[in-house]
């Protein structure tokens, strides 16, 4: 396994100490700042003899987390390691404008016999029954109605 050595500059140490001591930062940035300061072997470091095991115990994190932070710092740089990576997953929208219009039209129509108004689950079941989509959850129907400022309670 590759051992990554962290050597921070004076400016980087100062910025990490600022993150730890003041300001509102994400838990991720806070944890990364602690890891980098603890692992620092540069000339501006206060603690050159701290091991990964002791960092794990103090910060209550796993050894792999420390290794990942070190690797990301060495390969991608200081600014990148402080920010979370955006998710690479692409989400395909199930509800487009055409389906929204059909759901709104269905919502404004008469409810089934025996019911005074539509429920979200009845709407989602009816949309599937009419074969507009293969499957849609009642939450997605709720989001469509919320987006168009419609309410089933009226």
UniProtKB/TrEMBL annotation:
<protein>
    <submittedName>
        <fullName>Mobile element protein</fullName>
    </submittedName>
</protein>
<dbReference type="InterPro" id="IPR009057">
    <property type="entry name" value="Homeodomain-like_sf"/>
</dbReference>
<dbReference type="Pfam" id="PF13565">
    <property type="entry name" value="HTH_32"/>
</dbReference>
């Amino acid at each position: 396994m590759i051992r990554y050595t962290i050597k921070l500059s004076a400016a980087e140490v100062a910025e990490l100490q600022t993150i730890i001591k003041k300001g509102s930062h994400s838990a991720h940035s806070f944890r990364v700042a602690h890891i980098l300061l603890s692992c620092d072997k540069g000339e501006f470091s206060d603690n050159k003899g701290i091991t990964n095991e002791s960092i794990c115990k103090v910060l209550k994190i796993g050894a792999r987390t420390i290794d990942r932070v070190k690797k990301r710092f060495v390969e991608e740089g200081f600014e990148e390691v402080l920010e979370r990576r955006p998710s690479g997953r692409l989400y395909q929208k199930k509800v487009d404008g055409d389906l929204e219009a059909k759901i709104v039209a269905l919502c404004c129509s008469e409810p089934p016999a025996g019911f005074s108004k539509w429920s979200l689950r009845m709407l989602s079941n009816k949309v599937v029954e009419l074969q507009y989509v293969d499957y849609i959850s009642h939450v997605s129907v709720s989001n469509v109605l919320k987006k168009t400022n419609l309410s089933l309670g009226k």
